[in-house]
Write a structure and sequence with these properties.
By secondary structure, the protein is of the alpha+beta class. It has 7 helices and 5 strands, in the order αββαβββααααα.
């Protein structure tokens, strides 16, 4: 009598990865991008998990989301920490987000459009530009309006409209006498 080769957890996961097919069904209007929703992932993933005798479960402990895949012998996990959030609805949104990313990590699913993190950096650039508009302390360090604009331009790429907005902010700061040194 010969023993059948026991299939490992990683072989089972590899078979699931080979057979799963997902379409991006969610839309993020803020970044104008598409992604795969958690519902869609689970709808397509569950029959493949059942076929391979795998179970997926989540541990949602405040400040920590852990997703576990197991064949009852071995386990594989993916986990993320969560910001401290008091509002239960906001906390659940974050937990759902990380559960989705845990699953996509474990099963190597491309869940979002890859923008090479540009949306993150564009958001940061916008935040820094907005901060420059409010930074009267920085304005105080500049010789005049043109010096201020050139220093901001040196740090950040600006559109003509942004330059116009910055000039207006500078002029308003001068008018309100925010103790700029040249007034």
């Amino acid at each position: 009598m010969t023993d059948a080769k026991e299939v490992t957890l990683f072989e089972k996961i590899t078979r699931v990865q080979a057979d799963i097919s997902l379409k991006k069904d969610g839309k993020n209007p803020f970044y104008k991008s598409k992604y795969i929703t958690l519902d869609n992932i689970m709808d397509k993933l569950q029959p493949l998990l059942d076929r391979e005798w795998l179970v997926v479960f989540n541990m949602n402990i405040p400040w920590w989301v852990k997703t576990i895949v197991s064949d009852m012998k071995d386990t594989l996990t993916s986990e993320f920490t969560v910001e401290w959030i008091v509002d239960p609805q906001q906390l659940w949104k974050v937990i759902t987000y990380w559960r989705r990313y845990n699953l996509t990590s474990l099963f190597n699913i491309l869940a979002d459009e890859d923008d090479d993190a540009q949306s993150f950096y564009e958001e940061k650039k916008t935040d820094r530009f907005e901060n420059a508009k409010k930074n009267t302390n920085y304005m105080k360090q500049c010789l005049d309006e043109d010096d201020f604009i050139s220093k901001v331009k040196w740090k950040y790429k600006m559109t003509k409209q942004q330059e116009t907005d910055l000039r207006l902010c500078y002029q308003n700061a001068v008018k309100s006498n925010d103790s700029l040194p040249f007034e």
